[in-house]
Write a structure and sequence with these properties.
Chain lengths: 262, 302
């Protein structure tokens, strides 16, 4: 077993013994998958079948012309929830990674760990993977539950097709992992600079603010998310991720961590 | 095994280690003594490539500190000041993690070997957090040996341990010594250093002295012989003090304490002199200065 695998295995063994982490990994995706399905189901039973021309312009912009007003409303509301769905790859890593360095420090296990022949790259890759993999899996499984549920509730058709359109697939399968990497490295950077896991978690949670800005921006009608916009976001995320990984490695200075942190 | 030349470490304006020049030979137990804050842990961290020196050089196991750090970390074992185990993982899993990180060929076998050797095999499935301080320290000792290093750094191995646990650790260090491993023992437990070390270095930012405990006693105080007399008074001490090879002589109750370098040669002359002044000698014996006396004298003069 190589050193990166060892770190991943160790992190998971440690971190999944913490109830809060386990709760966030299981409950958050479940909540964000089931809640839009409940809304989808309850709005569908309202039976609004009139044409969507009666709806506000904001709704019409994102709905397909073939949708009824009821389907359009369902699509609009659930679309907003899908943005919230992107909280999963941001939030889970915060829970796991914010503990990763500062936890080692409070345990006083960092010195023996750094005394092994592990390189900084191997250590941080292990810690990255330990946080990114559960976040991505939770996002994908959550989305899978939502996709299957929405197909069952809507019976396929135009609404299901709209809900599972390429924009959301790009968001979940491309933007999701990129956001997870961003979140992990941001948390590792914060975790490298503070002494308390709770402080690390609170500071790292700042990473969700840009997503909340997107959420409220769309609600306020400032912009409407589409595939192009999500792809542009992915490119920006990729650049920011590279920068974050670079900064996380730069800020992880073995000597400072051992000698200056009290 | 270890060779340093003017090794120094500065943290901002604070000089933690000043021009340390030292050689530790293969198979010896070297005690590194000094008060708190003297720079002992900083030295160990430099020699185990955990931190880099500000200036000077060091060769550890044939590898250069600052240039071949991964090789150094691969070939030395370190027992850090605090055990630093993963408290919510089992003892066995704790060691398996390190066996894998040290690329041990048979991790499970090595883990079993040391858990059995240190009497922890029956508790292998228990979380390390449930262990007593002494058991955690034993687990940390096991961790430092998994990759069979020939050079071992032990930083305060018995700090905060009760006498029984300390005794166990001392016995284990003695075993390691018998196996021919080189041990760099960083401690301020003088009794521990006296019992275990072939040579000691007294350190307070810079190295004050390096020698065997016996030689250090001898250099600083000479050797001390006690003559138990039936009756004694100051005139006896004055007569003995006048002898050219006597460093110091004093009377305490009916005992005459004489400091000198070579009692084997000069004791007969002293005995003749005592008999000459009418003293009745009951017993003669040698008193050892404690290493604490040596240490305090050196640190006081530093």
């Amino acid at each position: 077993m190589n050193k990166i695998q060892t770190i991943v295995k160790k992190e998971w063994a440690e971190v999944f013994k913490k109830r809060m982490v386990l709760f966030s990994v299981i409950f958050l995706p479940l909540f964000l998958s089931v809640l839009p399905l409940i809304i989808l189901y309850s709005m569908g039973s309202m039976g609004t079948n009139s044409a969507n021309a009666e709806l506000p312009e904001q709704f019409q912009q994102i709905c397909k012309t073939s949708m009824t007003a009821g389907q359009c409303m369902q699509y609009y509301i659930v679309s907003e929830f899908l943005i919230m769905f992107m909280l999963i790859p941001l939030f889970i890593p915060v829970n796991i990674a914010s503990y990763s360095i500062v936890g080692e420090k409070t345990n006083r296990s960092l010195e023996p760990l750094l005394a092994t022949p592990i390189t900084t790259g191997e250590l941080l890759t292990g810690k990255n993977l330990a946080s990114v993999i559960p976040a991505i899996l939770a996002t994908w499984i959550g989305f899978g539950i939502f996709a299957i549920g929405s197909l069952i509730i809507t019976g396929g058709g135009v609404l299901a097709a709209a809900l599972l359109d390429p924009m959301w697939l790009i968001a979940i399968f491309l933007a999701g992992p990129l956001m997870a990497v961003l979140s992990v490295n941001f948390s590792i950077m914060v975790s490298s600079r503070v002494n308390d896991p709770r402080v690390a978690e609170q500071l790292s949670a700042v990473i969700i603010l840009p997503l909340m800005a997107v959420f409220f921006g769309q609600i306020a009608g400032l912009f409407i998310l589409n595939s192009t916009l999500i792809l542009i976001m992915c490119i920006i995320l990729l650049v920011v991720d590279v920068l974050m990984v670079y900064l996380a490695v730069r800020l992880f200075q073995r000597e400072n961590i051992l000698t200056r942190w009290k | 095994m270890i060779r340093t030349e003017n090794l120094s470490k500065k943290f901002d304006a604070t000089l933690a280690v000043d021009s340390l020049t030292l050689q530790v030979n293969e198979g010896e137990v070297f005690g590194f003594l000094g008060p708190n804050g003297a720079g002992k842990t900083t030295t160990v961290r430099m020699l185990t490539s955990l931190i880099g020196p500000t200036s000077g050089s060091a060769i550890v196991n044939g590898f250069s500190v600052g240039k071949q750090d991964t090789e150094i970390r691969r070939t030395v074992g370190i027992l850090t000041e605090t055990p630093g185990m993963y408290d919510n993982l089992s003892a066995e899993f704790n060691l398996e993690i390190y066996a894998n990180l040290y690329e041990v060929k048979d991790p499970k076998g090595q883990v079993e070997k040391y858990l059995r050797m240190l009497g922890l095999w029956d508790r292998r499935q228990d979380e390390a957090g449930t262990f007593s301080k002494g058991m955690k320290q034993k687990l940390a000792v096991a961790r430092s040996l998994l990759h069979e290093p020939r050079l071992l750094f032990l930083d305060e191995p018995t700090a905060a341990l009760d006498p029984e646990a300390s005794h166990l650790v001392h016995d284990f260090i003695a075993e390691l010594r018998k196996e021919g491993r080189t041990i760099f023992l960083c401690t301020h437990n003088l009794d521990e250093a006296d019992r275990l070390c072939d040579r000691i270095g007294v350190f307070k930012t810079h190295l004050l002295v390096v020698d065997s405990p016996t030689n250090l006693r001898s250099q600083l105080f000479g050797r001390r012989v006690v003559f138990h007399l039936l009756k004694s008074d100051e005139t006896i001490a004055t007569a003995i003090r006048a002898m050219p090879f006597v460093r110091e002589a004093k009377v305490i109750e009916n005992k005459l304490l004489v400091n000198l370098d070579e009692p084997e040669i000069h004791n007969p002359e002293i005995i003749r002199a005592l008999v000459g002044v009418g003293a009745d000698i009951q017993f003669v014996g040698e008193l050892r200065h404690s290493l604490e006396d040596v240490y305090l004298q050196l640190v006081k003069n530093a």
